[in-house]
Amino acid sequence: MPPTIQAHQADRQTIYFTAEHGAAVRVGEANIDGILIENVDTGARIRVGGAYPLLTEQPTEADLITSTVDPTKPVPDKPKKAKKAKKAKRLGHATTLHTNIQGGVEIEFPGRLVLLHGSNGSHKTTIVRGLELAGTAKASDVAGRGVTSKESMLIPLIDPAVDNTIMAAMQVHLPATDTEVECVYTAKVKDAKHASKAVHSTSGIKVVFPLREVHEHLRGSPEKAQAWLLQTACGNLDRAAVLARLSDKATTLFPALVNKGTPIVDSLLAAVKEAPGRARMAKRKSDAALQEADRLAMGLAPPASEEQIEELREASESSDWILDQAIADEAATNAVASVQQIDRDASQARLRALQEDVADRVDPRLTQALAAQTRFKPDSDHEQKQIDRNAAIRLIQTSLAKGTDHCLFCAGTLPREVQGTILSGLQQQVGAAIELAADYTRWTEQVSVLTQTRGTLEAEYNRIQASLQATPAASQEVADLSGCNVSVLDARAVASLARKNHDNAVDRTASWKRSRSARADSEMHAQDQRTYESLAKDLQATVAWAVDEAADTFVARVQALLPADDVFWLDARTGRYGLVKAVTDAEGHPIRHRRDSALCGAEWARVTMALAGASTPADADLAILVPEDRAWDPKTLRATMQGLVKYPGMVVITTTIKPYRGAPKGWHMIDTDEL
Predict the structure, then answer these.
(1) Which H helix or E strand runs over 371?
(2) For a FRET experiment, which of 355, 376, 383, 635 has its CA 20 to 30 Å from that of 557?
(3) In whole angstroms, what is the distance from residue 408 CA to residue 388 CA?
(4) Are 649 and 112 within 8 A, CB to CB?
(5) CA dist., res. 616 & res. 623, Å (int)
(6) In this predicted structure, which of 65-79, 112-126, 157-171, 544-558 has the lowest mean pLDDT?
(7) Which H or E run includes 298?
(8) Interacting residues of 380 by C-beta distance below 8 A, sequence separation 6+
(9) Is residue 127 predicted with pLDDT exceeding 90?
(10) Is-contact 185 198, C-beta < 8 A?
(11) How many helices and strands (H and E) does the chain possess?
(12) Cβ atoms within 10 A of the Cβ of 438, count?
């Protein structure tokens, strides 16, 4: 057992632990209202009495102490009682119930305190469930569930083969107005698994089962218990006090906290629930962004600098220009080649024409002329012969002119007739020789003309042939003119490679930028995650502070409904509750107090009534308290019934036995075996 010290003896510089919850606290200043202690973790503050027990060492669960005896006081300090409430309005009670669930039952309630006793299967639970359905459209302990309002889950309460409707109706007497109202629940059953939406009416009154609410929430999860405590006991929680414990970031990210149209308790609980989810979502986004950054950077060469990209861009533009020039040159080459082909074709045609002219016209005529020239060519002595003939003709003519028969030509005597015949023959020979010389001259001239013509044609032929041979290729001619000597195929390959290098550098750099951006997004989301995780801790600490405040308020409410000797305790973090009991030494002197949740029947009845009273809403018109079955013995049952008499609402106890010495005053017993 850790050593204890009373609050008025504590050192302000030392950290102690509370006897109730084991929370780390530091002692502050003291005044007439008590000694201030502050929770080190949450900052929550409360004033306690001077005998309030503090532990000098952190306790275990079994060591927790609720109070230490002050020698001047026989009992430990009790929690502060709530301010005296206004006079509560008188609550109503059910007068009749009619339901068809679990075989059906009709019953009248003669008063607000009712004991249902009977054997198992005598409709005690049916009556309770009928009251629950008629009042709140919910039923407890159905199909293995604590409390359910789902119509399909309520189908097992009837036999679908017999009934097609789930029905419960009760009459309620309201003493405040001395009137009767009816609460009705109906739900049509379609088949064994489906039912229509229920129709529920309470005639405008508010019906609650406070103990059911207490058990449902305090015995659930710690979060559920804390939320219920906050909503039940902290309806007027100071918004400014809550916001003072939170950072501006919290109000920015959760604006509902400053929205006065939303209750601060609801906003705080919603933020506590939402903050971890946002942190998880931010973590998922951060992880996804980091994975995307790694994926983008995987296998990438280092990013290109702006200078490198500019050089690659210029190289790409230069290669594109060369490609354009090569394409233009190719087009020009094709045009020049076309013109050259036309000229070549014309030249070839002219060559063929020249060949044909020489072969078909000039050469045959030249051959003919040469042959004729050869045929008419005179002998080499034809000129002498012609002189001799002319001389002979002159001699014969002279002889004939003299009229003598003496022939001067032959120097003999020839008759004149013979001389005339010889003269005629010589004259014919001279004429023939002249004619032959003329033919020879004509054919010689023709040979000369034809030879000259043939030479002219041959010269033209050789000139055209030489011109054809001297004409350059069209591509070379264009290349000489443009200065570009690259084929389109090569230029296209170079341009494609240059463009690919530039695009790869740009894409690689862009991928690096996206990777860095994704990494920045990852860090941003990681920062959001840290922010929300920090806010979640702050919100949880604020909720813990508010829960402590709510627990103190709720404990004060319950304590106000308990006898002076009972000290109620509640662990808001676990939902456990009970009474503080003294632990005595061998001589019977109290040495410490412990929290006890194992209560006897009378204690249980007092605590149950106080819990129900503290959790009954102020605006309730009908509050039905249904204590859980504790396997009563007759005396404990009677003590419990006596303890519940003061409850202002309706009490319904179900049991298989009767109380010792009959029902206490004010109670009405109903034997369910006789229904």
Answers:
(1) helix 363-375
(2) 635
(3) 13
(4) yes
(5) 7
(6) 65-79
(7) none
(8) none
(9) yes
(10) yes
(11) 15, 23
(12) 11
Distance CA 569, CA 185 (A): 38
Q: What is the pLDDT of residue 373?
A: 84
**3-class DSSP state for residue 607?**
helix
Residues 6+ apart with CB under 8 A from 268: 230, 237, 242, 257, 539, 542, 543, 546
- Give the type of residue at 221: S
> Which pLDDT belongs to residue 473?
63
SS3 585: coil
Q: Is 162 left (phi over 0), alpha (psi -120 to 50) or beta?
A: alpha
Phi, psi of 485 (to 5 degrees): -130, 50
Query: What is the distance of C-alpha 542 from the center of its chain?
Result: 33
Q: What is the pTM of this model?
A: 0.52
Which residue, 650, 667, 653, is CA-closest to 209?
A: 650
Q: pLDDT at position 117, please? A: 92
pLDDT tens digits for 570-624? 876 676 788 887 777 777 666 667 787 777 767 777 787 787 777 788 888 999 9
What's the Cα-to-Cα distance from 82 to each of 28, 244, 484, rounded to whole Å? 24, 25, 103
User: Is residue 160 a contact partner of residue 192, using CB atoms and an 8 Å limit?
Assistant: yes
Query: What six digits make up the tokens of 559?
Result: 């304590």
pLDDT at 174: 93
Chain mean position to CA 429: 131
Of all helices (H) and strands (E), which one includes residue 173? Answer: strand 165-174
Helix (H, G, I), strand (E, B) or coil at 575: coil
What are the C-alpha distances in Å from 577 to residues 39, 146, 380, 560?
21, 20, 169, 16
Would you state the pLDDT for residue 77? 43
Structure tokens, 654: 């179900």
Q: Which of 142-146, 167-171, 347-351 has the lowest mean pLDDT?
A: 142-146
Average pLDDT rounded to a whole number, residues 620-630 = 85
Q: How far apart are CA 636 and CA 97, in angstroms?
A: 28
Over residues 77-122, the pLDDT tens digits come to: 444 444 444 455 678 999 999 999 988 999 999 999 999 999 988 9
Region 45-63: mean pLDDT is 73
| Residue 130 in tokens | 């009928």
pLDDT in tens, 171-195: 999 998 899 999 999 999 988 888 8
Residue 131 near residue 94 (C-beta atoms within 8 A): yes
The more confident residue out of 142 and 210 is 210
CA–CA separation, 158 and 100 (whole Å): 7
